[in-house]
Amino acid sequence: MVVNAVLLAVGLLMVAPLVWLVVQSVTPEKSAFSIPPEWVPVPFTFDHFGSIPDLVPFGRMALNSLQVAVISTAGSLLVSVLAAYAFSRLSFRGRDALFLVMLSALMVPVQMTVIPVFVLMRNLGLVDTLAALWLPALINVFSVFFLRQYFNTIPRELDEAARIDGAGHLWILFRMIVPLSGPALAAMTILTFELSWNNYFGPLIFLSTPEHMTLPIGLVALQNGQGGSSVVVFAAITAVVLPVLAVFLAFQRSFVASIASAGLRG
Amino acid sequence: MTDTAVRAVRRRASVRPGGDRVRPAGPRRDRVGYAFVSPAVLLFLVFVLGPFVAAIGLSFFAWDMLTPARFTGVDNFTRMFADPLLYKALANTFVFALASVVTHLVGGLLLALAVNRAMSRALSYFVRTALFFPFVISWAAVALLWKYVLDPTFGIVTHYAGELGISTPDWFTDPAWALPAIIGIDFWHTIGFTFVIMLAGLQTVPKELVEAARCDGANGRQILWHVTIPLMSPTIFFAAVITFIGAFQIFDPVQIITPQGGPDDSTLTVVMYLYQKGFESFQVGYASAVSLLVFVVMMAVTLLQFRGSRKWVHHQ
């Protein structure tokens, strides 16, 4: 019983900053950030949310974030699925060496490759465009590895049966293996989308105009160039956090399962 | 099956006694394989392997991205070993990473043990959700929020600590407290991840073994130390390695909360230093040399993981 009480307290402490955030973001400016803290939003206002676009192009930033996340996720999944199939099912010269080289690249931190990639993007004229973010994200070595491991658990007899019936590799991959890999694909979708959506390092390096920024970097820009007040910053943080929380609560089980199965720490 | 067998025979036949291997057997098969991997390989070369090699190359040059690069041999590396700010950044990063590993492992294990007991579904759901949700929020939002939460005038931590008679420092202007504050924020953001990993590991411990120990008269603490923890050692080891790797590359919260590296550079981390050198003062060669150092640490830890998981860890 004591342990349960402690757990409840820990849970409430974890949630407290979030509740405080949301409450301040709907409290009129005069009474926001009061001491002692107010935990019930009475009186109540949505005005701060209306003031966000006066400071940063919030809608544009949200669309940018969405665009980068969708292209990165869909693109890298397609690239990974094709490569994972080759590494799992096809034999070709140099396959194992190639796989090993790609796997070792998991040790290379992104901070190491980012400088040459920046130079490359500058030469391509892609600095301060969204392509600078999603192009490098199309290759996700971890996802290739993860999907290949999953494909290896699908019985090969199925392929052979399909082959005898005259099926080609693309048919086997997209009509048989992909539909059988639901959990693995869901895990990679969630992880890739989340990493892209929350990415701060990449946008910080590649983006400079507010119209081209994604939400995380836009939030920080809003706070730094604070023409508005703290309540508007809080409203912006709330507007970024709440949709993510809603998606998380709706798909909590798959979220937690995919992160546990992949063992990736952001 | 027969098809593969025939190919295997043909392949073997095509190995000439001299040793130079010609394999006419599978050119078509090779081509199919290459076609499937080619998008990944092409992207890998352009965005991973190429830049990796380029970064190693750049570390032997002095370059500001504007004027032509100048070959300087090992100058960047000798400079690195004599750079007090880099040592400071390394020390901060190691302190942060070790503190992160200890707090996450202890906290994650205790919470997993506490949640893995009989309790109401509602409480279990609430605790698990409350522990995990910060992990899905972007660091940008988390860092900004916590800057306010810890604010010395209107932050809630300041207020409630004061109610309890504890006076809190002005976290981000006090060199002694800036890094501990970041460690705390990181704990809030990432503990859910460690907790989930620990909970999954805990559920692999066979109940029969715990029961058997209890029948033999072991008490709760003995079971924990002599049954549960040894059986969970692969999970604990994995969590330690992955926490260390993540923490060693810490950048977002320190950059957002203390953009200049905090009071007395007390929150300057290695990746932050690399960012400053590369993208603020445009010393690309030097930044590349520092990035090579980060890579070496990553590689060392990964190799340690390989060796360690064979040697140290109790496997069933």
Could you walk me through the main structural features you see in this protein, from its secondary elements to its overall organization?
The complex is a heterodimer of chains A (266) and B (316). Chain A has 266 residues and is mainly alpha-helical. Chain A folds into two domains: 1-45, no CATH class; 55-262, MetI-like fold. Chain A has helices at residues 2-25, 47-55, 58-89, 95-104, 110-123, 131-137, 141-152, 156-164, 169-180, 182-198, 201-206, 215-224, 230-250, 252-262. The longest helix of chain A has 32 residues, at 58-89. The two termini of chain A are 34 Å apart. The model of chain A has no long low-confidence stretch (mean pLDDT 90). Chain B is mainly alpha-helical and 316 residues long. Chain B is 70% helix and 1% strand. Chain B has helices at residues 2-13, 27-58, 75-81, 84-115, 121-132, 139-149, 156-163, 178-202, 207-215, 220-248, 252-257, 270-280, 284-311, and strands spanning 61-62, 70-71. A two-stranded antiparallel sheet of chain B has the order 1-2. In chain B, helix 4 runs parallel beside helix 8, helix 9 (207-215) runs antiparallel to helix 10 (220-248) and helix 12 (270-280) runs antiparallel to helix 13. Chains A and B meet through helix 1, helix 3, helix 4, helix 5 and helix 10 of A and helix 2, helix 4, helix 5, helix 6 and helix 8 of B. Chain B: Residues 90-305 form the ABC transmembrane type-1 domain. Chain B: Belongs to the binding-protein-dependent transport system permease family.
